[in-house]
């Protein structure tokens, strides 16, 4: 299969498009033919050797994938070959195939395209966990989202509203990261 491999830590020049083996799956995993993947800040940090995953070159980067199940492990119960899914992995989604744990693989409805599904796992799961389980947001509350211009930040803003936040305030690291509707002026603190 084809894959993008981080050959050494560094800038984008360390990425190599090459042939590698299709991953083997365990009894609780599925093999997915990847249709789309995402690029997260964590992928960039991994490539630079500054991410906590501990991956050492050479490795295939990428946390999120969407595609079609082509094979299931013997103990897999809720997924089947031919099913459209998205998955969250420790690494490896910049490839034609990935081995994903059943517990971190989710079916996607036909109304959701692969690109949208691939953009969801890391940012959606992290945002939900932080807002619903850590912050325990309640309807009408004001929520402060730091790093609001990033993937998790922009998702958290939308999710906070869906969870009933009365007001959502976002911070960004620079003026160029502000993206507000024309009618709303930024508030300087």
Verbal overview:
It is built from 4 helices and 9 strands; from the N terminus they run βββαββββααβαβ. It is globular, with a radius of gyration of 19 Å. A 5-stranded antiparallel β-sheet has the order 6-3-4-5-7. The protein is of the alpha+beta class and 189 residues long. The C terminus is likely disordered. Strand 1 and strand 2 form a beta hairpin. Helix 3 crosses helix 4. 32% of the residues are buried. The chain has 2 domains: 117 residues, Medium-chain alcohol dehydrogenases, catalytic domain (Quinone Oxidoreductase, Chain A, domain 1, Alpha-Beta Complex), CATH 3.90.180; 56 residues, Rossmann fold (3-Layer(aba) Sandwich), CATH 3.40.50.
Write the layout of secondary structure elements.
Layout (H helix, E strand, L loop, with lengths): L1 E5 L8 E5 L9 E9 L3 H7 L16 E9 L11 E5 L8 E5 L3 E3 L6 H5 L2 H14 L7 E4 L5 H12 L4 E4 L19
Parallel strand pairs: 8-9
Antiparallel strand pairs: 1-2, 3-4, 3-6, 4-5, 5-7
Helix pairs in contact: 3-4
Characteristics:
single chain; 189 residues; alpha+beta; Quinone Oxidoreductase, Chain A, domain 1; Rossmann fold; 2 domains; 5-stranded antiparallel sheet; two-stranded antiparallel sheet; 4 helices; disordered C terminus
Tally the beta strands. 9
The CATH homologous superfamily of the largest domain: Medium-chain alcohol dehydrogenases, catalytic domain
Helix tally? 4
Most strands sheet: 5 strands, antiparallel
Based on Cα principal axes, name the global outline.
Answer: globular
């Amino acid at each position: 299969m084809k894959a993008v491999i981080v050959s050494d830590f560094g800038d984008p020049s360390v990425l190599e498009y090459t042939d590698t083996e299709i991953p083997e799956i365990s009894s609780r995993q599925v093999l997915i033919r990847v249709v789309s993947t995402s690029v997260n800040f964590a992928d960039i940090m991994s490539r630079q050797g500054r991410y906590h995953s501990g991956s050492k070159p050479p490795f295939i980067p990428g946390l999120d994938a969407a595609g079609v199940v082509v094979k299931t492990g013997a103990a897999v119960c809720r997924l089947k070959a031919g099913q459209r899914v998205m998955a969250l992995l420790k690494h490896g989604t910049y490839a034609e195939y990935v081995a994903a744990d059943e517990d971190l693989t989710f079916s996607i409805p036909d109304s959701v395209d692969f690109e949208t599904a691939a953009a969801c796992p890391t940012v959606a799961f992290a945002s939900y966990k932080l807002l619903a389980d850590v912050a325990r947001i309640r309807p009408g509350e004001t929520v402060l989202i730091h790093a609001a211009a990033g993937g998790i930040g922009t998702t958290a803003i939308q999710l906070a509203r869906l969870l009933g936040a009365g007001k959502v305030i976002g911070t960004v690291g620079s003026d160029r990261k502000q993206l507000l509707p024309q009618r709303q002026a930024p508030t300087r603190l």
